[in-house]
């Protein structure tokens, strides 16, 4: 029987099989941000340990960073302390760090690929669940907790329990106006927030091959919302073309050698998956979430569901709670739901393609009266490129608020960008949990195109509605 | 890590599914740079609502949490584990856990036990009927016991061994330092290394 892409990568990184249920895996790259890491460094220091491979480690500042201006300091005292510790810890242990204001700074999952640090067949970890994003390159990328961060800092390895495999086949290609965000919301709505639990997902099929690297990152990013430990896409010509223009790539014969190796990193034709799901891309349309977890999503053409329509008592109870929290009445067409804020950003959708998609909708149009459209670039580079392409002018003419600083911003609501209690937003981020975008906030997860159209009408809308 | 062998304590029946880590500890408390001091942040938003089970006087001092499916999904924040431990929980029993949360819990000595839905339902009923009834989580015999109920569970041998001995996972791994060095010698030379942003780029 053949081997899956994920298994090949896993096997190539086993330092030792313990026999007690875990494999000790070598980690090719550890990414760090200022949240979840101070505790790891404190314990490392207390134990008199050091960082084994600072050159396989990279830090950035993203969660607390301000977005209004580059010379602002972080207002929140504790958030500022986290950033300060990130700087002193990285300096002490010799870890390269992209500080706020640096041209290479941005959301950790956005900058790592930009810097050419993410390649097929690598193992990558980060103190952040959306590390799954980087599987778009055919890497094995996991989110980990602070104790595991400390473990990787000290040993460059991680004991991991073997995971199961799951294939998501996407038959056919997505219709115009339907993107990776809609595809992944449809998948999560179908398999649930635990549908991928304990599994590494591999996205396969024509519908995936047709996606750009940016779109694949969106897809893999939200894989964690289905409970999966990682998401992957086998590398192909699209991957190599993207990598070829990244900094620090091998050149000439060395490049050819790498590509030849990467070509071997595909699942064998006779590889078996523990679980398989098929989606028909042609049948999909824009999706939006109505509830308080990403599986509570429906087509934008649909209506807010009634709690009693769900199969299990637990789902009914969860739906009832969600409807109450979101202040929605069953049967309401989603297109009738008005929002007061639109947030375009986060590691799911803040790359240049996402900004272009929004600009295409906004060009020659205006943001609805009284609505706040906030656009936060995923990285300083994305912002620079958007300006070079003139997207900043499109945003300004439409009345959007295109922020200067890159970072997580209103996705995590750790900086000063947050919703007030009861405010409702359409957000291109990945989580609609209770209070996620600020205490008492209400979030509808959408694609960049739907976000932009919604900003124009003031109600959940797709570009086709304009 | 704190050792875990056998623990008995009263329980909190949390009849909710999909309790993500944003609910266990809202993000505004994650600006702290400490591992401790998170007890008040545990379920902070739900505790502010009327009638939340954790706030019932008879649940005071409880140390076993009984939760519904998919406890600890979402964000990787280890604060969720620290907050549960700070509050006094030693074990969580649920039909299914978020993967990252589960890994974090076992690294910290908070035992997460997977039990079938029907067993959690029974434990809810028993502890709702009698808040004083103790729940025993026995890692030596891999059993959960409460009133007449006895339920076996499984845990990977590696994780179990570390918990039973209170072993530091890093020290455990460093026994294989020679294997790590040998592996490093075989890595593909073209693999990327990180660099300090150059002064010019700054
Ligand atoms: S953008 Fe949001 S989901 Fe992504 S890393 Fe930042 S806080 Fe996490």
UniProtKB/TrEMBL annotation, chain A:
Keyword DNA damage: no
Major enzyme class: lyase
Annotated EC: 4.2.1.33
Pfam families listed in its UniProt record: Aconitase
Signal peptide range: none
Domain Aconitase/3-isopropylmalate dehydratase large subunit alpha/beta/alpha: residue ranges: 8-458
Keyword annotations from UniProtKB, A to Z: 4Fe-4S, Amino-acid biosynthesis, Branched-chain amino acid biosynthesis, Iron, Iron-sulfur, Leucine biosynthesis, Lyase, Metal-binding
Description of how the protein assembles with itself and partners: Heterodimer of LeuC and LeuD.
Protein name, UniProt field: 3-isopropylmalate dehydratase large subunit
Organism: Streptomyces solicavernae
From TrEMBL, chain B:
Pathway linked to the protein: Amino-acid biosynthesis; L-leucine biosynthesis; L-leucine from 3-methyl-2-oxobutanoate: step 2/4
UniProt similarity note: Belongs to the LeuD family. LeuD type 1 subfamily.
Phylogenetic placement of the source organism: Bacteria, Bacillati, Actinomycetota, Actinomycetes, Kitasatosporales
The UniProt record lists the keyword Repressor: no
Catalysed reaction, written as an equation: (2R,3S)-3-isopropylmalate = (2S)-2-isopropylmalate
Enzyme class label: lyase
Name of protein: 3-isopropylmalate dehydratase small subunit
Entry superkingdom: Bacteria
The protein's role, per its UniProt record: Catalyzes the isomerization between 2-isopropylmalate and 3-isopropylmalate, via the formation of 2-isopropylmaleate.
PANTHER family named in the record: 3-ISOPROPYLMALATE DEHYDRATASE SMALL SUBUNIT, 3-ISOPROPYLMALATE DEHYDRATASE SMALL SUBUNIT 2-RELATED-RELATED
EC number: 4.2.1.33
Description of how the protein assembles with itself and partners: Heterodimer of LeuC and LeuD.
The entry's keywords: Amino-acid biosynthesis, Branched-chain amino acid biosynthesis, Leucine biosynthesis, Lyase
Gene name tied to this protein: leuD
Gene Ontology terms, MF aspect: 3-isopropylmalate dehydratase activity
Positions of the Aconitase A/isopropylmalate dehydratase small subunit swivel domain: 1-116
